[in-house]
Amino acid sequence: MADQTLLGEVQGYERPDHRANANHAATAPAFFSAHDIHAYYGESYIVQGVSFNIHEGEILALLGRNGAGKTSTLRAMARTGSPLVTHGEIWLDRKPLHRMKSYEAAQNGLALVPEDRRIIQGLTVEENLELARIAPDPGWEIERVYELFPRLGERRKQEGTTLSGGEQQMLAIGRALVRQIKLLLLDEPYEGLAPVIVDEIEKTLNVIKAQGITTVLVEQNALRALALADRAVILDTGTVVFDGLAQEVLDNEELRHEYLAI
Fold first, then answer.
1. pTM for this one?
2. What are the pLDDT digits (tens) for 147-181?
3. pLDDT digits (tens, 9 = 90+) for 19-40
């Protein structure tokens, strides 16, 4: 379990109690649960007893300063193998992801959109989507992705890696949606994007939420992420220091200054 002595003292908010694997989400039972996750890069102890729950259809903002362990926690959830998870349990819709490889977790509904987007060089927008849709249990039709992202429809025959940063982010999300997914993990989706494109991505995430897809958002632009999210988990040096409503973080200046520097 997370060492309670590592959790920061911030006036005005209640310290989450992970000793009983407390459920801090609005409803029960949990759709996704990470329980006492410990993970390493080599000998570097990165994720130190992280526990939190997410419920179906929620958007959760996973926040913290640089080096807090956000991306590492996301990669641990996705079972990428790096960092190496040495202890803990990860459950999605009653399936034990902690017993799975990354491809098995993907087959069970988990989709990770990494910061570098992983657009396949040499393939058009449409070919990138078609390749992603080869999965045994396909999700959205490609035309539905084009309805969500009209820019992609206009550029369907253009090579994916020649798109703008915002368009590549749309394509990366579209590639996730053409598979049958339950949990969407987004790592820094606003990175390097103009505010108008961020607005478009946020509208998209609300559409995705309305379809019942659960989303975890790792984002340095914490204020934008908090305004979008239902709930927030804040990490500090690989440990959970806050688990609650996103609005609580927006309302608590001391908490934001201590752990988010905003």
1. 0.87
2. 999 999 999 999 999 999 999 999 999 999 999 99
3. 333 445 444 568 999 999 999 9
Structure tokens at 180: 């049958």
CA atoms within 13 A on the CB side of 165: 13
Q: What integer is the mean pLDDT of 199-210? A: 93
SS3 annotation, 104-161: HHHHCCEEEECCCCCCCCCCEHHHHHHHHCCCCCECCCHHHHHHHCHHHHHCCCCEHH
Does position 83 have pLDDT exceeding 90, yes or no? yes
